[in-house]
Design brief:
By secondary structure, this protein is an alpha+beta fold. The protein contains five helices and nine strands, in the order E-E-H-E-E-E-E-H-H-E-H-H-E-E. The chain has a five-stranded mixed beta sheet with strand order 1-2-7-6-3, sandwiched between helices. A two-stranded antiparallel ribbon has the order 4-5. Helix 2 crosses helix 4. The protein starts with a strand and ends with a strand.
Amino acid sequence: MSDPRIGESFVGEGVNAAHINTVAGARSGPAGTAWATALGSPSTGHVPFVAVLQPSLPVKPLTLFVTKSAPDSDAHGLMIWGPAQAGVAAGVADAVAEGVITEEQADTDVIIAAVWVNPGADDADAVYRHNREATRTALHNGVEHLPALADVLAARNEPRNPFYTAPAD
């Protein structure tokens, strides 16, 4: 049994950007336990669900979509359940098609995707594209153990993100 593969990716800018965290691993291991526990433990505003490519066609590996932000309006909920979910499912399928996830792992592994959809998102197609790419990239990063430690250490004195830039030392 191998350790879970943990990945992260941020794609896009502004309200339609995607921020994805993934945990992938064997159904019979810690990732499978976390997957089942999360599915059975919804909280107010955060109801994990299985990502589907089409109704009754879940993506493989089975992927649990977990929202990082509770829907704050009907429009926000539609962005989560619609284009973000479709993007996550397609990104997982892309990872399988590209060999990031093997065909064997498609039937033996599970994925948890923690997904941020901004309440102000206003472009469904951009939300879809960004979530697709962020999911594929996060899974790739998990498999490749990225980022490289040298990159982390090189950036340690200049932390920044879309919401904050630390002052120079």
